Amino acid sequence: MTRADWIREGKEWAQSIVVALVLTLIIRTFVIQAFKIPSGSMRPTLMEGDKLFVNKYTYRFHPPQRGDIIVFKYPQDPKKDFIKRLAAFENETVEIKDGKIFVDGKVLADPATFGKFYYYNHDPFGGPHEQVRIPKDAYFVLGDNSANSADSRFWGFVPKANLVGKAVFRWWPVRKIGTLK
Length: 181
Prior knowledge:
With 181 residues, this protein is of the alpha+beta class. It has 3 helices and 12 strands; from the N terminus they run αβββββββαββαβββ.
């Protein structure tokens, strides 16, 4: 190979690497991103160390649905990403009593998403016999492992602007690969 061939070959490799990096950044920023579960707040649905893909694009066209597993910027420290289950929307009223979640007076009865026992707490967002009204442009989120989850019951509401995306697919561990519900 001549020196000119080496230079030409090097330029082709450099162009391919730059294009791959640009595409990766675009996809990661706007479409899909990988996340790792750091805590047990979503047990048994998601375990510590599970790795998932989060669709950052879907909520641009479709609003979130009750029961979605969402990733959002933690309201008290937006540098941190949190993952929880969406329980209530703006202008709805939430109450936790007898281990069940009530939204506008009706129990969330879907056993696949809200069939766990939920604890109330003594903080301003979900104490015993307390109804909490969700403010405009905000969500109320809960961890599936309510006994060990720092969620809206403790720190309040998730602003819509903090929404990152919907957790859609677990890719690790191998024995649990699949879509999330």
